[in-house]
Amino acid sequence: MRKIIHCDCDCFFAAVEMRDNPDYRDIPLAVGGHSDRRGVIATCNYIARGFGVRSAMPTKTALRLCPDLKVIPGHMAKYREVSAQIMSIYQEVTDLIEPLSLDEAYLDVSACNLFSGSGTRIAQWLRAQVAEKTGITISAGVAPNKFLAKIASDWNKPNGLCVIAPNDVEAFLATLPVNKLHGVGKKTAERLHAMSIFTCDDVKGIPLHELREHFGQFGERLYHLSRGIDHRPVTNERERKSISVEHTFAEDLMTLDECCAKISLLCGELQQRYSKYRSEAAVAGCFVKVKFHDFTQTTIEQQVTYEDEALFSPLLVQAWHRSQKPVRLLGIGYRLTKQSTDLQQQLSLW
């Protein structure tokens, strides 16, 4: 039986800014881009969330919901520094740490002897240490697996702790709404509700073959998650699966030619970013993402095994012709696979 802790900093970027500037602590605050440049909100504090402001929301929309919202640019170097401090505190407890982002990580404390191996007390200690040494609060979830720990960490936010003991899993899941399950978005939730499935208990009443029939491979995942089953280990060896760049334009690109003219700039940025990973990850595919003025979007990709700027223009043409509408965002990227050392060795003539 594993003991997993999911730690999640509360409104991390905004929390760092509020820590460093007392004037920001009692006002609605967001870290993000300018509204006149079609910026988006990276994160916001809980005062702003009370007005309906959310991460990934266009800054223009956020300001309409909260006219007094203070929007400031991010300081990534500072956030990385604080994140490194927090991760070093986690390392005092276990080496089995799986970072998901600068502000979020899974910890496997199954073999930890601190506090006689109590996951609850370890989580309490971690929260206290992070607050004392960095001035940042974290919410934590303790559970027998990653899926449940992730849900638990969000249960009592902000600055909260939720523990789901093995004997409590069934009762906890009984009334858990299906939209809390990872991978269940708005559309999937609507399909489930149309089948009178609202909770995990409702999912358990549907046979596996029927879930597969309606939801394909994801049906099997619904079957397991509704029962609290998640065998994924915490791993600190993360393999990069893709790398990409994207731009949101201040003014819509009205024609296909305008879109194609932006490819070279994007390719230059992509090659610069990929150069850091070229020795360990090989190209296995390429893709183009287009977001239109009405926020609908499409992605087209193909399998390739080499880098070439010429790969992206044909994909862009296909993507644009799907809607033929003004474009607000373009993105390009590579799918990656682990670099094979065998391919780098010269074959023997014999």
Outline the secondary-structure elements:
Elements: E1 4-9, H1 12-20, E2 29-32, E3 41-44, H2 46-49, H3 59-65, E4 70-72, H4 76-90, E5 97-101, E6 104-108, H5 119-134, E7 138-143, H6 146-153, E8 161-163, H7 169-174, H8 186-194, H9 200-204, H10 208-215, H11 217-225, E9 242-253, H12 256-260, H13 263-274, E10 281-292, E11 297-302, H14 312-321, E12 327-338
CATH superfamily of the largest domain: DNA polymerase, Y-family, little finger domain
Portion of residues in beta strands equals 15-25%
SSE run:
EHEEHHEHEEHEHEHHHHHEHHEEHE
Strand line-up across the major sheet: 5-6-1-7-8
- Label the structural class: alpha+beta
Q: Helix share of residues?
A: 25-40%
* Overall radius of gyration: 23 Å
Overall strand count = 12
In CATH's first tier, which class of the largest domain applies? Alpha Beta
Topology-level CATH name of the largest domain: Dna Ligase, domain 1
> Domains counted in the coordinates: how many?
4
- Number of helices, where a helix is a run of at least 4 consecutive DSSP H or I residues: 14
Main sheet overview = 5 strands, mixed
Mean pLDDT: 91
Family: Belongs to the DNA polymerase type-Y family.
Pfam family, one: IMS_HHH_1
Domain UmuC: 4-185
Protein name: DNA polymerase IV
